[in-house]
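Handoff note, outgoing to incoming analyst
You'll be picking up this chain. Sequence as last confirmed:
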Amino acid sequence: MIPYWMSRTQLLLGDEKVENLMNKHVLVAGLGGVGGICAEMIVRSGVGKITIVDADVVDLSNCNRQVVALQSNAGNLKAEEMASRLQAINPDLQITVVTTFLNVETTAGILDAHPLDYAVDCIDTLGSKVFFIKSCMERNIPIVSSMGAGGKVDPLQIKIEDISRSYNCTLAKYVRKRLHEVGIRTGFKVVFSPEEIDETRVIVTEKAHPKKTLIGTISYMPAIFGCMVASVVIRGMMGE
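Most recent structure output, in case you need it:
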């Protein structure tokens, strides 16, 4: 039975597609500015099962762009805060919360824990990101990946393309390079923007650990990236 809160989605898509979404399981890795809003849009679409993965805690500097970040929850685990928010949207949601870092040691166990219909990569660190993508592709799990939203302000330049057709994005360049080393050149979609970055808005600092740099961000760009990533997942599971 389709619940009343989904009536507007039901009106748009029809019963069959909504019921199909209600039976899907999506994994979202990374709950920052892109991943948090992406997870929320996936749940608001009616997807019935979700696994969310993030080991980080809310920092006050996240409040400019992350849907999970509030002045009142600084220091709390993002995954646990996000889980409470998602459960409040859909009380019937089946949610798995993972608060460990995704790396070579942990990725397989997380991907193999439950059958997955789609995976979302919103991971910031390059090594973990590439290994996660590779692991999903080895398991034939459909995956979409977000490239860099930082340093960019023009939403009209954001694109959805196969990884092989991404360009003028530093993160995408390094992801492609690492994937080429393991024989992967194509086969999954990415959300990216070729907008030029003002390099004066990037700083090298130990505060960025495990990354080496911090980059300026604006409220709406990661959210738009996240919504576009979610659209790939939702439309993909509907066969569009």
